[in-house]
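Lab notebook: predicted structure, single chain.

Context: the supervisor wants predicted structures on file for every construct in the current expression panel, including those that have not yet been purified. This is the next one on the list. No modifications to the sequence; it matches the entry in the shared construct table.
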Amino acid sequence: MTRLIVWRHGNTDWNNARRVQGQTDVPLNERGREQALAAAPLLAALRPDAIVASDLSRAADTAAALAALTGLPVHTDPRLRERHFGQWQGLLVDEVAERFPAEYARWRAGDPDPGAGLESLDDLGKRVGTGFRAAVDAVPGGTVVVATHGGGARQGCGHLLGWDHRVLATILSLSNCHWTELRHDGVRGWQLRAHNVGVPTVGAPTGVGSGRGAPVSTEAV
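Prediction complete. Output recorded below exactly as produced.
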């Protein structure tokens, strides 16, 4: 049996400001570093065989907290980066809504390819899913922790599970420094074992929501 732990990075100042990160290399803030340190012992208890991370610093530095406990190196893979948000990257969510009303409305409605230069959900899922497969293929039958991003995590898992964007839209976004667990065996293939697991956060910012007709997805910020 192969186990894949898909771990979202810790909090950033852009998360808190509701500013679209996408593939902009925004670092962890103090709270994000604390979240990574708090989550690392729980993940170390799973006895991972490998740690892989997006090459964006907020994911790589999250993974480093686990590496410090396990002694494992962090291998980076640019395929694990967040969705590219095109012309929206660096803008506040309110600015996106004002400057790109049509594309924003389509995105809010769950359109997988809303325009404005955003990477399509299909392309995102294939890219990140390919990175996930490469990570687990390197340690057959092992446990791999992958530190990545909210949107990439959702679509990459969906690619492995064979779920399309309409199904994935019903699943809440990962909170900062929380993870999804997938398992694979030769009979049943990939299975969802757990979702949004992590250290409980009390009074944490809720971000900007998820899903169709819901507040704006935390995956954008």
